[in-house]
Design a protein that fits this description.
4-stranded mixed β-sheet; 41% helix; alpha/beta; 261 residues; binds NADP nicotinamide-adenine-dinucleotide phosphate
Length: 261
């Protein structure tokens, strides 16, 4: 996706995927400085650990506690997080306006943090974090309440607790890995009987593109937003940070679709 974008914008950069063991993270970043790489994306398991090796980090990335994009200016490394803003762009593109809405998010890991903070910043009214581990969801809810007017609270994944909450919700986001290949045939993280046609259902999982949750949501008449939009737009925002140019979003989308099949 990034290489297709560089080619189409005639930018002399190449994007490489490199594996890095956790104990070599500092050395890897030093290599970026020494070789003068323009930037990096950071992924699992380094997104949180990388903060302490950077020269500066944007307030947004500090708030999320994770960096997915680094820009190198003459050896000075700055960390950004484009996941949350990428998610909001994908929602808007899917026709959903986050301002004033009531949201239920499943999961309380890194992706849930980025999405929850971005939704709070975008002016959503109520954020309910439904967690398998309630303490993680509660911690995130407290952090949101300290920073934003959005009302955040945590609940368990118990069906009796979820039922009234989903009846009142406008948006359901799956920020857990449930539904990812090769477990794509497992039951959806939320049973189909709890979904209703006024809900927009977003799944961050993009492998497969139509998850079992999105299939159930479509069957109930819900609007759906799949995980490829967030993947595309976090990458487009990273492209813009590295190059200072508008991202060729349609070229990137075509390439992403081609790669994901
Ligand atoms: P993570 O940090 O490992 O967090 C995963 C969360 O899901 C945790 O809160 C975990 O609960 C919960 N969870 C795991 N299995 C569950 C289950 N069976 N039932 C209920 N909850 C469960 O992972 P992450 O980085 O946040 O990523 C989450 C998903 O988002 C992944 O599938 C990832 O591929 C996807 N993602 C997509 C994009 C995109 O661009 N579309 C970007 C980032 C991530 P506990 O708290 O109990 O462990």
């Amino acid at each position: 996706m990034q290489n297709a974008a560089f080619r189409s914008a005639a930018i002399n950069l190449v994007y490489l995927a490199l594996a890095l063991p956790p104990d070599k993270l500092a050395v890897g970043l030093e290599a970026a400085r020494v070789f003068g790489w323009r930037g990096l994306n950071i992924t699992i398991p380094h997104k949180e650990a990388v903060l302490k090796y950077l020269d500066s980090t944007t307030p947004e990335a500090v708030e999320i506690g994770a960096v997915n994009t680094v820009v190198n200016e003459d050896g000075i490394l700055t960390g950004y997080n484009t996941d949350g803003a990428g998610f909001i762009r994908s929602l808007l593109e899917g026709g959903f306006q986050p301002a004033g809405c009531r949201v239920v998010i499943i999961g309380a890991g890194g992706a849930a943090r980025a999405v929850a903070m971005a939704l709070a910043r975008a002016g959503c009214d109520e954020l309910i974090l439904a967690g398998r581990t309630l303490s993680r969801a509660s911690e995130l809810a407290m952090q949101i309440n300290r920073r934003y007017p959005a009302k955040a609270r945590s609940i368990t994944l118990d069906e009796q607790v979820l039922t009234p909450v989903l009846v009142a919700a406008d948006l359901l986001v799956n920020a857990s890995p449930v539904g990812t290949f090769p477990h794509h045939q497992d039951p959806p993280v939320i049973p189909e009987r709890l979904l209703h046609a006024r809900l927009t259902v977003s799944d961050l999982v993009y492998n497969p593109r139509e998850t079992v949750l999105l299939r159930a949501a479509k069957a109930q008449g819900c609007r759906t937003v799949d995980g490829t939009g967030m993947l595309l737009h976090q990458g487009a925002l990273a492209f813009e940070l590295w190059t200072g140019k508008p991202a060729p979003v349609e070229i990137m989308r075509q390439e992403l679709n081609r790669q994901l099949g």
